[in-house]
Amino acid sequence: METHTPGSTPSITVDCGHVLVVGGGIGGIGAALALRRSGADVTLVERAHEFGEVGAGLQMAPNATRILERWGLLDKLLEVGVTPQFMVFRDAVTGEEILRQDLQGEFRERFGAPYIVAHRTDLHRILLEAAVEAGVTMKNDVTVTGYATVDGRGSVRTADDSVLVADAVIGADGLRSTLRSELSADEPVPSGYVAYRGALPISEVTSAADMESVVVWLGPHCHLVQYPLRKGNMFNTVAVFQSPAFLRGEEEWGSEDELEEAYSACVPQVRAALANLGRTRSWPMFDREPIESWVKDRLLLVGDAAHPMLQYLAQGACQALEDAALLEDLAAATEAFPANAAAWDSILGDFNADRAPRTARVQRVARTWGESWHVDQRIPKLLRNMLFKAAGSSDIGQYIDWLYADSEATKELSFQGVQH
Amino acid sequence: METHTPGSTPSITVDCGHVLVVGGGIGGIGAALALRRSGADVTLVERAHEFGEVGAGLQMAPNATRILERWGLLDKLLEVGVTPQFMVFRDAVTGEEILRQDLQGEFRERFGAPYIVAHRTDLHRILLEAAVEAGVTMKNDVTVTGYATVDGRGSVRTADDSVLVADAVIGADGLRSTLRSELSADEPVPSGYVAYRGALPISEVTSAADMESVVVWLGPHCHLVQYPLRKGNMFNTVAVFQSPAFLRGEEEWGSEDELEEAYSACVPQVRAALANLGRTRSWPMFDREPIESWVKDRLLLVGDAAHPMLQYLAQGACQALEDAALLEDLAAATEAFPANAAAWDSILGDFNADRAPRTARVQRVARTWGESWHVDQRIPKLLRNMLFKAAGSSDIGQYIDWLYADSEATKELSFQGVQH
What we know:
Largest sheet of chain A: 7 strands, mixed
Oligomer: homodimer
Structural class of chain A: alpha/beta
Low-confidence stretches of chain A: 409-420
């Protein structure tokens, strides 16, 4: 085990008790709430001066809304979110509808929870309020710079030379995780795709929008997603396209000019929707290669720090909540939790063993799923469109049970065809 | 109307009466039989010294076997053919089965006729015997060199300077049709793919073959088809691959060396099957662009002369039989057929109007179908395999009703996705 070197003795050491969570995004707050619900004393530290989320809408599939329901938070999200009637896929070049999946009725029954679209800030706020209410200690302006195991406990050093110790440290510091470097030298992998987003009051949306569906337009090296937010008072648009500048190897990529050009082959309805996007900020899309171990002594990575993924399956937040739910399950199955600190070794190990294969699969399938959206040649486009149509007229479960069904059922199911 | 030029006055003119059919392949004999059954006097001329068919096995789908049944020939074909239990598609690189379509039971019921695989020579012989028995006049060693309309009747000149006249001339002279040049200046289109074939006694087939199925192995720029023939005493193998020499623009393409190389990425079972192929002859695969008109005065093109197609839908012979069946239907609906020679104008026009759109669709879908078999990149292969799996678990009718169902039903059905 490492110790902090003598020359850099910190000015102050704070004992956080059972759990220290590093990172106040959806994954960190989820994990903090879950462990607090299990009886642990939890401190959560966040680098930013305020808690918050950037971005626009996000999709919560049943595998995540089941967890919100367990936590008593589903109704709160339903109050501000939208439960779309359909998930619709269209060919962005021809306009043709290629799949219309009902998200109500049988779908909701099959997975035992609703499909919800909501503003990212709303989900974040609901989780944050629940964590505060549950008694999680929250600290802003704390930048964690490294981890060490000290006397068998987890310990992090901060940018202001403090040391925070706890029985376990949960690293939820996102895609560009500092704590991941304790476990792996890997770097974020740029996809070459960049996202522009916009969430506008519905009166400002000029196009005749489908207000009951999540609509995904699939184009050559681009796609566009549209759905309503906030009880239909807002309309969310996400445009994701491949940057030619990235392909040329340039440092700066994904400009507004590239945005306009990327959709030139698409139907007017898609091109018009670009007006609904914010232009002051864009999101280059990254993920990472799956890694086998998220555990170093008493450090555990969760959420994007552990398994950042491309957004094509809309599972980033959902998988972070799955992480949290499993922490809660493992705590519940542990005798004398959280007093028995030695139990963390098996909790973290079991967590890793359970979650790593699943999230690696989600990471890999998300990449492949995106590639299949963005095909640009005649035969692949035809195969994609025919596949979507065939999927729509067959039992959709063969494609989505592995992802959306509850974990017991998942063990019996598999995603036919996309295994890796 | 043209007449033969004075300087080349033929030595002899033969009046064939109602119908002259040019070409003694499956299409020509089928048309001759159909029109003879309708009461016409029919003469069929064939360039070769003997009637016959080269090649190995052929597949007769229900749209064709229904016609054989109408003609009382289905039982004869069943005596020598095989009704496979399954049509199986496999990924030639992974060996994975991606589709298993039952060709018995519901399939046979749905289409009202069996799916049969048989030796080409057997089908040809059965049709030839039926045509002779029905009273078609057969002449070998007749090479037709051109068509003219003389006194409102059809007329062809032959290589030995004879002239054959009839109320109508049916041009069934195949892919490299001489008579098509009366209507179109188009040329056969090389696909760059070449076929090797083999039909061996079953004892010589070393690999453990599936004796109840048509098995199609799909590989990168290649495929391999295997099925039993002659009550399971023979085994048919067809290997079709893209020639690198063709892609390089060379005159000679599709060598035996290319054959071996083309399957190098495939599973051992596929590579071993190449030993079952004859090596002395290969078939470069051609089709033509669809043309709108097959009619010039009293000349009508049918079969490959009218609509040559790539073999991916296994419909070349089937569509030729559909041609024949429609001729029979139109004759039956014509008052005073065949005495009323003026009725040929509407018969040929109606035939063209009915058949050209359908066969153009088969020609186009066959090309697309082949391209989707031969994809070589990761995502297109994945989409193809997933599509085949999805099709296998959904109502297969949405893909094949347009082709196999009887023509009345066909008008209500369409091939979802592959419209052109």
